[in-house]
Amino acid sequence: QVQLVESGGGLVQAGGSLRLSCAASGRTFSSYAMGWFRQAPGKEREFVAAITWSGGITLYADSVKGRFSISRDNAKNTAYLQMNSLKPEDTAVYCCAAREDRIAWTIANKYDYWGQGTQVTVSS
After folding, report:
1. Which of these, 77, 96, 112, 89, lies nearest to 19 by C-alpha position?
2. Cα of 106 vs its chain's centroid, Å
3. Spatial separation of the C-alpha atoms in residues 49 and 115, rounded to whole Å
4. What does the pLDDT look like over 17-76, one tens digit per residue?
5. Do β-strands 58-60 and 78-83 pair in parallel, antiparallel, or remain unpaired?
6. How many Cβ atoms are within 10 Å of 15's Cβ, its own excluded?
7. What is the largest CA-CA distance in the chain?
8. What are 97-122's pLDDT values in tens digits?
């Protein structure tokens, strides 16, 4: 079992930056691929970014490529999502997810563990 807790969300103006953190506890964090997903009101959950267990491969949605960066620190059992050049359309609840796998997935139902989410609001 893995417990995930997100932090770092908040209100920011368009063009600003935020860094989200996902703290994991329970099992060996370095065995898990990690993903970030988001869901805006009235919309379906969508993939944002993912990273392999070693951090060697990262994947991004086209909508955030070049603006967001996913990383992890296995010594701290934490994954991060650095979000730059934020836009109002980035407003959503952001959740991290984990799967005990060497492969990073872009599909939500591949992940076994989820955090509660953190709200990100970008004002225009």
Report:
1. 96
2. 11
3. 15
4. 999 999 999 768 889 999 999 999 999 999 999 999 998 999 999 999 999 999 999 999
5. unpaired
6. 11
7. 41
8. 999 998 999 999 999 999 999 999 99
